[in-house]
Every structure is written in structure tokens, then in C-alpha cells.
Design a protein that fits this description.
Length: 830
């Protein structure tokens, strides 16, 4: 058996080497199809199939609070109550990202990103420090001395992998902190965090001790053995309802939302990735049909050979095996090249994976792992069988008497009208139509998203972050405000700067601050009906720096009275008391004004900021500005308001933006120098033009659109080449017939029409099939499109026209070739 297989492989190799053009085209086509499928599967393997690197990861649950159908960060006091009252989890833990800190070791200071966790974080995930110990209850107390854990990358890079680092004292924002442990290299839950700090000592600094404060905190839990996720969700909602009854002013209408950790990390990327996988599978099917069509065309030339072999005693199973070996050998060569192609694409495919999941694969996608290689092997084998079976089955039916017959006539038809090749061409056209329309919809959606009006000018705007001066000024709010106001004033004097401003939430910077409020000219709403709106704390030139138009009233002028605080570092109650005594000015967006005061002049209207539990400030509207999209492209809600940094200096860190007269990149060095003259300890970082930030928010969608477009273009080329190839082959086989018809008086136009219409007879059903499929999958695409419908007539028309145009040329050139047949040459050749 082994000997026969070797002979079959050797014979197949000889046969393929005698048709180099067909072999090269087939191998390259297979490499593209199998390589694309392998590359996209490697993405799915990273996100959907590979388990999270934690013990019993299926029991890890992400928990958030929920109000009016929307998820909220978890209130720290609520978390503490959850922890005390729940019985479904072996442990609960809370974590939050925080502003970067200055880490001083020896004579150098570095700006490092941080994440803050409670003492049970590693225990919930089932991770042990590589060196030292975990955070203890003593570390996780409000009055505790600062302690920190080092991620492996920070330990290796900044401490040289020193095994004696545990117990070393370092300076974190001017305070002495002790390194208590080093995390293992396999722990990458926070792939962008340089330090891990205990949360409790910083709760007051972030105003998290207030129950109504939802300050960027997330909760994880590990289910107990035997407890189902549904049971845990029910218990958490029961606890939330109890808290709503106990604390109606802060918790009315607040529930709990539980979801599997993998599902939370995946977000909405699953649909996008499955769409891509569907596209590449369709491309691979088109590849199979294309090569099967070419093989069928070649098979007609081998009918005489097969008939002779049957006459000499070859049995049908042997012929099928021999022909299938040829197909599988061809597929194996294409599959091997496809794996190398997929490996080359793997780095580029990182953009398709949410960074939270990508980190678990070591920071990048790899095709050199067992599941992906097994998939490539399976795809290669199935592809070889897929495109080889129909030609093999047809050839194996050879009749010995056919060896003596003239086989120049057309191959047998399917039910007297179409043959197998015709049906395969129709299938290719249908698949290409489906892919073209899908790509067209995705591209048009991306264009609509990119072109959606922002409400301001993004060109010539430079954005930068400035390390918080909080540690240097003991986190004194008024001193922090003075620092940023001074920075804005100095940056405005830099040559080339038109306007400079500071803001608590940089446009497209990933921050999102909300606060409840009520209108003073209306009765107070029910406790669970307080509206919530996003807000930004800005300096007076913010609107000029962005180009947001003033519609009514005025903007901040820099003379707003500042709060009078009881101490440099006031408590929350002292801060609230100071704000209640302060006449606060507020600017609202046009949508905010239209929603709450339709048909009225909003200037002079009063707003009470804060929840019923903690009323913060009485504000008076001084102006209305235009709506602006500053959180995400495609944003539909623009009801927001703005506060003055002079009156709300309670953020630890603000961002800066500059409007330049020309290229904003030319201001980078000048801005750095100006800040350096103010302070030698606070570093400028994350410096980018605003247009770059916006482009990055849709980079994954843009990459997905380009991939689908590339697959659609490949499908169009394959369908066109397949149609051209089968028509050209048929014209060659019909040379004698066409010559006779011309000799008997057939006009050139009739010959052209005969060949052309036969080709289009394969195209029309394929187009109809593709249009029907495109309409059917529209429901799946609905949530991934922006600004267009799933049956957008323009997209359907343009894509269909593009395919028909390609099909026209694929049919026209063989038809013209048929019209040029010389009857005498054709008859003499026979």
C-alpha cells in the first residue's frame, strides 16, 4: 500500500510538472485562500477558543453596576457591601486604572502607568507572585504605608531582574513605597500597567468613599464550586435591590450586571471577527470552485487517457485515488505556502484583537501553535478533496470505447443545458457578488463614520498630557489648578500657538465623566429618575482651541470665583461645602439646551449638580455652545455641559491642547521646553495631533474594512478568471464546430453572441444568488454598520455593476477570439 502511494505521488508530481502554468496558478490561488483562512483562524483562536491563563477561568465573572440599561463603574462602598453580603463567590475583588505616577529609583525618575487593586485580586485570578508576597490586608487600608507589586516586565526592564528587589524602598509621587512582590511573566491581565498598587490608601484621593461615586472601578469574582452564573446574577441583583432600599438617594434604580470574563474582554469584536472568518471561508470555497473548474477543463483533455487506462484494466477506485492524490498534492503545496503567508500576516492582524485578549497570547498573534497548524492541515485536506472530487468522479467514468471516438465536441451538459463547469462558475459569481456587497457596505459605513460631523475643527490641534503636579503640591486642589492655569497661559505665548487650553477629558482620550443633576426651575424628580449627563472641566480658551462655536451667551472669561477651602487638602464634605457657597457658572451644549428648555432661552437657567445624596453645586447657565463629538465617532447623544477649572479644580490630572497656526507637530518641542521651564519633575507625554487620536479610534474597523475589501477583490478576480478560463477553453474545444459554422455562412456577430451569451448565462444566476445572499445576511450586519442601511441601494447597484462589467470583459475576449477562427485552418487542423 505504501509503495502504491509513493508511486501515485510520483506520478502526480510528474503530471503537475507537465502543466506548469496550471500548477503555478493553482498553487498561488490555494496559498492565498488557505493562508487567509489560517491567519483569520489564528485571530479567532486567540480570542474565542484559547482559554484564559487562569485556573478554572470559566468561573471568573465580571461585575458592573447598571442603571437604566447602561453599565456603570462600581461604587466602592457598594463593592464593600457586595463583599460582605454575597455567598456565590469564593472572593470578590475590585480594580481600577489610575493616573500615571512618578517612580524615582536611585537618581532617575520615570513616568509609569498604574493600576490599583484590592488585596484579593491575585487570589480571585488564582495567581501567586513569582518573588515576595501578595498584598495583605494591612497593605489595603486607607492609612497603610504605600506598597507595590512589580509586573514582570517592569522588574526586568527597570530593576534589571534583581532577585533582591523585594523589600526595596522607592519613591512613588514623592512618597516612600516598599516593593512587596514581583508578578510572574505569565501574568498579563494589565499588559499596559507598569505598577500595581493597593487601592484603599487612594480611595479618598479619588473621592471614591462616596456611595454615589462611580469612579472607573471594575469588579471580578470567582464563582464557588457548584454555583451557576445565573444563580450568582440573581443573588447580586437581590443585594443591589436591598442597597437601593437602604440608600435610596444614591442607589435607586441601580442593579448589578454579571458577565463571563472572556465575554467582557471580547466586547463587540466577536461579530467583526466572525464576519471576517465568513469572508475568508467564502474566498476558500471560491478558490475550490475555481480550481475545480480549471481541473474539469483539463479533465476533458484527459478523457482519452482515462479511457485507454480503463481498457487496459484499470479499475474505477484506482483512477479516483490517482486523481485525488494529484489534487491533494497540489493542495498540500498551496497549504504549505499558505502557512508561511499567514505567519507573515500575523503581526498585522493584531489590530483585530482587543488588547485585553491579545495580551494573553504574549502580545501578538502566532500561527506556530498546534490548534492553528491543525486547522491549516484540515483546511488543506478538505480543500484538496473539495476541488478534486468532482473532476476525479467524472473522469473515473471513462468508457473504453471512447478512446476511439472523436471527443472534440462539447462536454456533456447538465440536464441538457448546463454542464458541471457552468454551475461552478455560477457559484463563483454568487460568492463574489456576496463578498463585494458586504465589503461595499462595510466600506461605506466606515466612510460615513469618518465623515460624520464633529462640530469643531480637528486640523492643527495638538494634544498632550502632563504628569500631575499633585505629589509636588501635596494634592492641594487650588495649587493644582494654579499649575495648569499657569501652564495654559505660558503655552499660549509660544510662537505659532493660536489658543491653549486644559481639560479634564481629552477629546477621544478614553476618559468619560458623568454626573447626575436636576433643573432648579422644576420639581425634583424621583430618586431613580435623576438625569445624568457627561461633563468636562475646561479653561476659558477651550472652545476657541477646538473651534466649537458659541451660540448664545458667553464662555468662561478666566475671572470665575474660585472655591474657598477650609484647608489645602480638604475632605469630601469640606469640598462640597465650599462648592455650595460658590456661584458656579456652567456652559451647556445646544442639544442639552434644546432637550431641557425647548423654545426657551437657557441663559440664566439654574442647574443643581449632584445626586440626591450629595448635592454639589448650584450652577447658572452662562452660555450655549455647538454640539460636538468628543467621545467616539458615530456618537449620537450630545447633551453635555462644561465647568470651569477655576471652580472645579478637583481632578488630579488634566490634559492640554493647543491650536496651531500651521502644522501642530512643529509645536511639540516648543511646548516641551515651555513646560520644562515651569517644572523639572513633571514630564510631558502622550503628545499627538488630535486627528491622529481620532484615526486611532477606528483603526480596527479600518483594518477590517481593508481586509474584507481585499478578500472581495480576490473573489472578483477569481470569478472573472474562472469565467474567462472556461469560455476560452470551450472556444478552443469548439474550434472545428465554429469553423464549420462560419464556412456555412454564420455571421461573425452570431458567433460572438453565441459565445458571449453562453458566458452570461452562467453570470446571471450567480448574480441573483449573490444578491439574495447579501439581503439574507443583512440582519447580521445591522449592528456593524453606521449611517447606511443593510440594503443600501447605491452599494448594491455599484457592486453589481462592477461584477457585471468584469464578467462582460471575461465573456467578450473569448467571444472575439471565436469570431477570428479561420475555417480553413480549423478544418485542416482536424
Amino acid at each position: 500500500m505504501t509503495k502504491n502511494l509513493k508511486q501515485d505521488i510520483a506520478y502526480a508530481a510528474r503530471r503537475l510538472s507537465k502543466s506548469p502554468a496550471f500548477t503555478i496558478v493553482a498553487v498561488m490561488t490555494l496559498a492565498l485562500g488557505i493562508g487567509a483562512n489560517t491567519a483569520i483562524f489564528s485571530v479567532l483562536n486567540t480570542t474565542l477558543f484559547r482559554s484564559l491563563p487562569y485556573p478554572a477561568a470559566n468561573r471568573l465573572i465580571h461585575i458592573s453596576e447598571q442603571k437604566a440599561g447602561g453599565d456603570l463603574p462600581v461604587s466602592y462602598p457598594d463593592f464593600l457591601d457586595w463583599k460582605r453580603q454575597q455567598n456565590s463567590f469564593s472572593a470578590l475583588t475590585i480594580y481600577r486604572t489610575a493616573n500615571p505616577v512618578n517612580l524615582r529609583t536611585g537618581g532617575s525618575t520615570d513616568r509609569l502607568s498604574t493600576v490599583m487593586v484590592d488585596r484579593d485580586f491575585l487570589r480571585v485570578l488564582g495567581v501567586q507572585p513569582m518573588l515576595g508576597r501578595d498584598l495583605s490586608p494591612d497593605d489595603d487600608r486607607p492609612e497603610a504605608a504605600p506598597a507595590l507589586l512589580l509586573p514582570y516586565a517592569t522588574w526586568a526592564k527597570r530593576f534589571g531582574g534583581d532577585p533582591e528587589v523585594v523589600g526595596r524602598a522607592v519613591q512613588v509621587d514623592g512618597k516612600t513605597a516598599t516593593i512587596v512582590g514581583v508578578l510572574p511573566s505569565s501574568f498579563q491581565f494589565f499588559n499596559d500597567a507598569d505598577l500595581v498598587l493597593p487601592l484603599a490608601p487612594y480611595v479618598a484621593q479619588f473621592y471614591m468613599e462616596n456611595r454615589e461615586s462611580h469612579s472607573n472601578a471594575r469588579v471580578l469574582g470567582r464563582l464557588k464550586e457548584g454555583v451557576s452564573p445565573a444563580a450568582a446574577a440573581g443573588e447580586m441583583n437581590t443585594i443591589a435591590a436591598h442597597l437601593a432600599g437602604q440608600f435610596p438617594k444614591s442607589n435607586a434604580g441601580v442593579g448589578a450586571h454579571t458577565v463571563d470574563l472572556r465575554q467582557y474582554l471580547m466586547g463587540d469584536a466577536k461579530q467583526q471577527q466572525l464576519l471576517l472568518m465568513g469572508a475568508v471561508v467564502l474566498v476558500l470555497l471560491i478558490v475550490c470552485v475555481n480550481i475545480a473548474t480549471l481541473s474539469l477543463s483539463r479533465s476533458f483533455a484527459r478523457e482519452r487517457e482515462m479511457s485507454i487506462r480503463v481498457a487496459l484494466g484499470a479499475r474505477r477506485p484506482y483512477l479516483i485515488r490517482q486523481l485525488m492524490v494529484e489534487s491533494l498534492l497540489l493542495s498540500a503545496i498551496g497549504g504549505g505556502l499558505g502557512v508561511f503567508l499567514a505567519a507573515g500576516l500575523s503581526a498585522a492582524l493584531n489590530a483585530l484583537v482587543p488588547h485585553q485578549l491579545l495580551q494573553f497570547g504574549g502580545g501578538s498573534i502566532s500561527v506556530l501553535n498546534l490548534p492553528v497548524l491543525l486547522f491549516a492541515f484540515g483546511a488543506t485536506a478538505l480543500t484538496g478533496i473539495g476541488f478534486g472530487f468532482v473532476p476525479a468522479w467524472q473522469l473515473s467514468k471513462a468508457n473504453p470505447s471512447d478512446a476511439l471516438k472523436d471527443r472534440s465536441a462539447m462536454p456533456k451538459s447538465f440536464r441538457g443545458r448546463f454542464n458541471s463547469s457552468d454551475l461552478m462558475i455560477a457559484a463563483q459569481v454568487g460568492g463574489a457578488t456576496l463578498l463585494l456587497i458586504t465589503a461595499g457596505l462595510v466600506l461605506r459605513s466606515l466612510w460615513a463614520l469618518s465623515d460624520s460631523p464633529l462640530g469643531y475643527e480637528t486640523e492643527n490641534v495638538l494634544t498632550l498630557r502632563l504628569a500631575s503636579p499633585g505629589a509636588r503640591v501635596n494634592n492641594a486642589p487650588l495649587r493644582i489648578a494654579a499649575f495648569y492655569l499657569n501652564a495654559v497661559q505660558r503655552l499660549a505665548q509660544v510662537p505659532g500657538v493660536e489658543a491653549a487650553a486644559a481639560t479634564s477629558d481629552l477629546p477621544f482620550g478614553g476618559n468619560d465623566s458623568h454626573n447626575p443633576f436636576r433643573l432648579l426651575d422644576r420639581p425634583a424628580p424621583a430618586l431613580n429618575d435623576y438625569p445624568v449627563a457627561p461633563y468636562r472641566i475646561v479653561t476659558s480658551d477651550y472652545f476657541r482651541a477646538l473651534g466649537i462655536p458659541l451660540l448664545q451667551g458667553r464662555v468662561f472669561d478666566g475671572t470665575e470665583p474660585m472655591p474657598v477651602l477650609a484647608s489645602e487638602t480638604p475632605t469630601t464634605d469640606q469640598t462640597l461645602e465650599a462648592l455650595r457657597r460658590l456661584p458656579v457658572s456652567v456652559i451647556v451644549s445646544h442639544s442639552f439646551a434644546q432637550h431641557w428648555w425647548p423654545g426657551q432661552n437657557p441663559v440664566g437657567k439654574g442647574i443643581l449638580l449632584g445626586s440626591p445624596a450629595r448635592e454639589m453645586a448650584h450652577c447658572t447657565v452662562i452660555g450655549v455652545v455647538g454640539d460636538s463629538t468628543q467621545d467616539s465617532l458615530g456618537q449620537t447623544k450630545h447633551e453635555e455641559y462644561y465647568l470651569s477649572l477655576r471652580q472645579f479644580p478637583f481632578f488630579g490630572e488634566y490634559s492640554l491642547l493647543l491650536r496651531a497656526h500651521g502644522d501642530p507637530a512643529l509645536l511639540i518641542e516648543s511646548a516641551r521646553k515651555q513646560i520644562k521651564q515651569m517644572t523639572a519633575t513633571e514630564a510631558v507625554y502622550d503628545v499627538r495631533p488630535l486627528s491622529t487620536r481620532i484615526a486611532e479610534t477606528i483603526s480596527a474597523q479600518s483594518f477590517q474594512s481593508k481586509l474584507i475589501s481585499a478578500f472581495a477583490a480576490l473573489a472578483l478576480v477569481l470569478a472573472t478568471v474562472g469565467l474567462y478560463g472556461i469560455l476560452a477553453f470551450n472556444v478552443g474545444r469548439r474550434t472545428r464546430e465554429i469553423g464549420i459554422r462560419i464556412a456555412l455562412g454564420a455571421s461573425l456577430n452570431s458567433v460572438i453572441c453565441n459565445v458571449f451569451l453562453r458566458g452570461f448565462a452562467m453570470v446571471v444566476p450567480g448574480v441573483v444568488l449573490g444578491l439574495t445572499g447579501s439581503w439574507a445576511i443583512g440582519r447580521y450586519l445591522r449592528n456593524q454598520l453606521h449611517g447606511i442601511s443593510t440594503t443600501d441601494p447605491r452599494t448594491f447597484a455599484v457592486c453589481t455593476a462592477a461584477l457585471i462589467l468584469s464578467a462582460f470583459f471575461a465573456c467578450w475576449f473569448p467571444a472575439r477570439r471565436a469570431a477570428k477562427v479561420d475555417p480553413l485552418v480549423a478544418l485542416r487542423d482536424e
